[in-house]
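Hey, can you fold this one?
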Amino acid sequence: MTERAWVLLNPGPANTTPTVKQALVMPDLCHREPEFFRLMRECREELVRLAGGGREFVAVAFTGSGTAAVEAVLCSVVRPDRALLIVDNGVYGRRMAQIAQAHQIPAEVVRLDNVTPVSPADVEARLRARPEVSHVALVHHETTTGLLNPVSAVVHVAARNGRRVIVDAMSSLFGEPLEVGQEGLDFVVASANKCLQGIAGVAFALCRRTAVEALKGADPRSVYLDLYSHYVAQEQDNTPFTPAIQVFHALRQALLELEAEGVGARVKRYADDARVLREGMARLGFEILVPEKGRSNILTTFRLLPGLEYEALHDQMKRRGYIIYAGQGEIRKFAFRVSNMGTLTPADMEGVVAAVEASLIELGVRRP
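Sure. Predicted structure:
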């Protein structure tokens, strides 16, 4: 079977550069040698610098998917006598609620539909009613639909009420503007294989140093996912467990390429991608599920046209080299998703629209 290059329109793993892929091929290296510890420290320092965290922040890395880092933060930072307020307006907010339940962390959940951003006023009202809540946890960009939550405003009301904030920025860090150093924001979690354009297998938490150091002496809820033990080991140029060495090597290359492009330029490229995609799909008659004010520039959920089934469109697009993504849950029945993260350009998005148009013609689907 011959390999082919797919244009990945799923929200991660994203398309990467040849040089990032080539970085995986390196000499075998023991994870207890100084060469690896230098590599890990370089990655951790660059993550903080490029995210704009400054000296107040430190990166803690985990070998695992993004959920591993989210779970590590949630199960480590909430004390036994305190509670968590979670915003659930999509699959990944709901996953945080599941993590809290698994670790028996009391949680107040703000439930919304998956096309409505959370209201900061609603968060503030819940916080005033629940004094035992110590942290607010929310997803910046919900890839369930392409919804963007107002993180800055939520952090503001949380800080005003003496609470701290945990943000799942898995699919938005380096792809959407995010003020990591904002007062009140203590933890920002992301992974290598989204807007960073690295390889899947390494996730990380950008931690306010005072917040992570405050965990000293706390009884851990997890062995592998104890945030503080990873922090202490990594600050001593060590690691408690065997890391994905080659993936870290590719991560360093991805960071070099992010610096060369510029974070602002990457954010703008994604916004240009989204504009070209949405304008082209509108010409074909597709409607966007999320109202304009709540949309990210990274992923778009389109309603299926009358008479068009997702599986048929997926297979037609795959024949043309494009991998689109199904909706999650009930959304799958009437909508599909197209992400534009990774190395994609506006020209690539023009190709996506042309492939959709050709697929509709071959399927005999009439455009509105």
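The longest helix spans residues 263-283. Let me know if you want another pass with a different chain boundary.
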